[in-house]
Design brief:
Blueprint (H helix, E strand, L loop, with lengths): L10 H9 L1 H23 L5 H9 L12 H7 L7 E5 L7 H5 L4 E6 L2 H14 L6 E5 L10 E7 L8 H10 L1 E8 L10 H8 L9 H10 L11
Parallel strand pairs: 1-2, 1-4, 2-3, 4-5
Length: 229
Amino acid sequence: MNTTGQGVAKEPTLVAMVDDPIARWQFINARRETVIDQIREIHGDPGDYWENRAKMLGSQLRVDPTLRFPLLDQVTAMVGPETTVLDVGAGWGRFAIPLATVARSVTAVEPANGLIARFRENIANADLAEGRLQLVESTWEDADVPPADIVLCSNVVMPILDIGPFLQKLDAHTLRQCLLIMRAVPMDAPITDLWEQIHQVPYPRETAPADLLAALAALNIPAQMTLLP
């Protein structure tokens, strides 16, 4: 993308966005990050996002492998005792730990230190059989892991700027099916009118499922979308 020194997109970039879903994805995320940087300048740097989230959510980040929820049921239906699973951006183990009780093995990739500590606590409390779950502390871009039958990436891709290589690596590691879970409506959507009053800057939209489908098509990665409650 061509930009000026001040980060304002030149006209050729804006024109390219119409025909180039990858450029459009990058523009949306770059603009959002610029606005968030402005908020940090106004209110002060809050520190590590996920460490703060983990402290705030506390017990909500505990994982009980016996508890079910609709998205987990959707994934579990595809997993059997001989299935290998790769969970990219596994967070605190919300999917990875329950899936490790039914799959042959689960590899979980997670880069955020604030979530890794909670993940390890949840693994210790889950009483999993040895070798069923491997936690890889790495970004997806740097992770060295084997392919898996089922690849899961839940609510991770929205802020990824360099989305092309990220999605291509997911595709290359998928033996049977890759499940990209993404919110149909941004979490902040109900309060966009309040955003500017609170943060003193206009609300920058997130990437949406339509942006993801367009990016996958541009990369020649076949995809279909299912809308779930």
